[in-house]
From TrEMBL, chain A:
The chain crosses the membrane at residues 21-41, 61-88, 120-143, 155-175, 182-208, 228-251. The keyword Lyase does not apply. It comes from the Bacteria. This is ABC-2 type transport system permease protein. Keywords: Membrane, Transmembrane, Transmembrane helix. It comes from Cellulomonas humilata. The keyword Transmembrane helix applies. It holds the Pfam family ABC2_membrane_4.
UniProtKB/TrEMBL annotation, chain B:
It comes from the Bacteria. Residues 4-230 form the ABC transporter domain. GO terms for molecular function: ATP binding. Keywords: ATP-binding, Nucleotide-binding, Transport. SMART domains: AAA. This is ABC-2 type transport system ATP-binding protein. InterPro entries: AAA+_ATPase, ABC_transporter-like_ATP-bd, ABC_transporter-like_CS, P-loop_NTPase. Pfam families: ABC_tran (PF00005). The keyword Amino-acid biosynthesis does not apply. The lineage of its organism: Bacteria, Bacillati, Actinomycetota, Actinomycetes, Micrococcales. Belongs to the ABC transporter superfamily.
Length: 257, 252
């Protein structure tokens, strides 16, 4: 493993910021999805008010409801959580005034940036898989029985939605770099989440990249999922790739001004 | 043995010229001190010489023929790189790896650098729990972990107690005298610089305005006078005036 990857993976593994963020994301996704399914079942069976409300938000009962709820929460939570971590990872040396120690080294700063982004994506993806496994274990413990193959596929789609959300969070690493700190990037992240809501309400969700993952896993219903265009999927891939390339390029030109 | 030559260095920030045509030589085996009042351009010049800031004009070259790069230059500029979540050992290991120390040699390099800075007993401590002075020692150890030929240090004794100041002085002198390093250091502690520098260059408003002899008295007065003369202010009268009333003679 290259020095840059060794160092950045070590920082991701040891940092309380990343451990807390990704641990909390996995736990919230698991317990929210199983809890939502249990509440929905109670609402259907016992006329519970809370259950009735949740039942309106998730499709079906049992593992079907778990898979649907998992995808919906992961697609949003991974964008938010990974966005904060990515911004902090690329902006922390500015905020701590230690950037100079990462410049003019035998290890090019572009490689350090690549390792930073890769480490965040890797940790975020592992957290998505961990969240799915935790949801499956929690569901079995809660008495749902073993999931069917189709339910596992739905959970898998949820994991992919999480990875897509993390990929769409990479622009905030770039904002953290050009903004010389993570706070501007956190502001931009909150802005994108709000803009996404407005764009979906105005009917542009099928192509707006930050809305596409949640629509694909059913946040807007089956009809909205079917309406997602190929352009929207291409834009999801393109936005993350462009953010990765821009961040690495910006880092390769960094100076301690 | 590597020396550094800088010729005609210029760096502007908008309308402000922070460094304006500076020539500087940092000779192998010598400690070269850079002094000046606040805003004189010291840090900007050090950043360019360390390679973390590009000059608008001028050249920087090493006499060894190699490009100034992190493989041969060690620097501590701004805050020390002490990641709070990592231990002292992990911080130094990271610094060594990023500075291209071969993996097999990293443990030895880490131990040697930590011992030289007097933090060998703190290797398992998290950097977040270190005092300001020990974080500075960690930053210095990280700057020197790869045994560089040229060392650039900006205010290296910041936050250090007297024992730390002494350790840094001994280390700087050992690196210059024994290892033949070229060392460039800036500080406002002129008395400390007088104890370790071979040459002192005075920078004022981005230009070199003279040099001081390290062994002469009243370096602060000389520095102030040099800066004032560069601004066209005649301070001869003020400097010749006694600062304290003469002590009364003891009764016999």
């Amino acid at each position: 493993m290259s020095p840059a990857w060794t160092v950045e993976l070590l920082k991701v593994r040891k940092s309380p910021v990343t451990r807390t963020a990704f641990g909390a994301m996995a736990a919230i996704a698991a317990f929210f999805s199983v809890g939502a399914a249990l509440l929905a079942a109670r609402g259907t069976a016992e006329g519970s008010l809370a259950g009735a409300k949740v039942a309106a938000m998730v499709d079906g009962v049992g593992w079907s409801a778990v898979g649907g709820a998992f995808g919906q929460i992961v697609s949003v939570l991974w964008l938010l959580g990974t966005g904060v971590v990515a911004a902090w990872t690329c902006g922390r040396e500015y905020s701590d005034r230690t950037l100079g120690q990462l410049l003019a080294l035998p290890t090019p700063s572009s490689r350090i940036a690549t390792a930073k982004l890769g480490s965040v994506m890797l940790a975020s993806s592992v957290a998505a898989v961990a969240g799915a496994l935790l949801a499956l274990v929690s569901g079995v413990v809660a008495g749902m029985g073993p999931p069917a193959v189709g339910d596992l596929q739905t959970m898998g789609a949820g994991v992919l939605a999480g990875v897509a959300g993390a990929w769409l969070a990479l622009p905030f690493a770039w904002v953290g770099t050009v903004g010389r700190g993570y706070l501007p990037a956190v502001g931009a992240l909150l802005g994108i989440v709000m803009v996404s809501q407005v764009v979906v309400l105005l009917g542009g969700g099928s192509w707006f990249p930050w809305a596409v993952p949640s629509l694909l896993v059913g946040a807007g219903g089956a009809e909205a999922a079917a309406d997602v265009s190929a352009l929207g999927v291409v834009l999801v891939v393109g936005v993350g790739a462009a953010a990765w390339a821009s961040t690495v390029t910006t880092w390769s030109r960094l100076q301690l001004v | 043995m590597t020396s550094l030559e800088a010729r005609g260095l210029v760096r502007r920030f908008g309308d402000v010229t922070a460094v304006d045509g500076v020539d500087l030589d940092v000779v192998a085996g010598q400690v070269h001190a850079l002094v000046g009042l606040n805003g004189s351009g010291k840090t900007t010049l050090l950043r360019m010489l360390a390679g973390v800031l590009r000059p608008d004009a001028g050249v920087i070259r090493l006499t060894s023929g190699t490009e100034p790069s992190g493989a041969v230059v060690g620097h501590l500029i701004d805050a020390p790189a002490a990641y709070p979540e990592l231990t002292v050992e992990q911080n130094l290991t990271s610094a060594a790896l990023l500075r291209a120390v071969p993996r097999a040699l990293v443990p030895h390099a880490v131990t040697r650098a930590a011992t030289a800075l007097g933090i060998g007993d703190l290797l398992t401590r998290r950097a977040g729990g270190l005092s300001l002075g020990n974080r500075q020692r960690l930053g210095l150890a990280a700057a020197l972990v790869h045994d560089p030929q040229l060392v650039v240090l900006d205010e290296p004794t910041n936050g250090l107690d007297p024992a730390g100041v002494l350790a840094v002085r001994r280390l700087v002198l050992e690196r210059a005298r024994t290892a033949g390093c070229a060392i460039l250091v800036s500080s406002h502690h002129l008395d400390e610089l007088a104890r370790m520098a071979d040459r002192i260059t005075v920078l004022h408003r981005g230009r070199v305005v003279g040099s001081l002899e390290p062994q002469t008295p009243d370096l602060e007065v000389q520095l102030f006078a040099m800066a004032a003369r560069a601004d066209g202010i005649d301070v001869t009268e003020e400097l010749s005036r006694p600062t304290l009333a003469p002590k009364p003679e003891a009764r016999s």
